């Protein structure tokens, strides 16, 4: 039987709107932003995978010892969808979200936090 009281993590789901499309178009920009986020949030990256869509747009994931950060961008709509999931210290996930928010500077955000 699973001990549900011992499962601890936070999953932050953010739909960000009104972002400068230049920040969303290209893989190198998104990859740099996510890797800097990992560093600033004091998380542990164990791998990553990014895909550049043609002509613009990116999907990417950074695998963490603590879980993951993923992003999907639609520069033509000035939109990014971001997931930050970490187990352990919830403050790390919130710091990662804050770093991404500061970088993308959306005009509007739909935000959900799920404790897992």
| Percent strand | 35-45%
- Give a count of the beta strands, DSSP E runs of length 2 or more: 6
Q: State the fourth-level CATH superfamily.
A: S-adenosylmethionine decarboxylase
Strand order of the largest sheet: 2-3-4-5-1-6
SSE pattern: EHEEEEHE
Q: What is the number of helical segments per DSSP (H or I, 4+ residues)?
A: 2
**Radius of gyration of CA atoms, rounded to a whole number:** 14 Å
Distance between the termini: 17 Å
Count of all domains: 1
Judging from the principal axes of the Cα atoms, what is the shape? globular
Q: Helices and strands: which structural class? A: alpha+beta
> Could you name the ranges where pLDDT drops below 50 across 5 or more consecutive residues?
none
Helical content band: 25-40%
Average predicted local confidence, pLDDT: 94
CATH topology group = S-adenosylmethionine decarboxylase
Would you spell out the secondary-structure blueprint of this structure?
Elements lengths: L8 E9 L9 H14 L4 E8 L5 E7 L2 E8 L4 E9 L2 H15 L3 E8 L1
Helix pairs in contact: 1-2
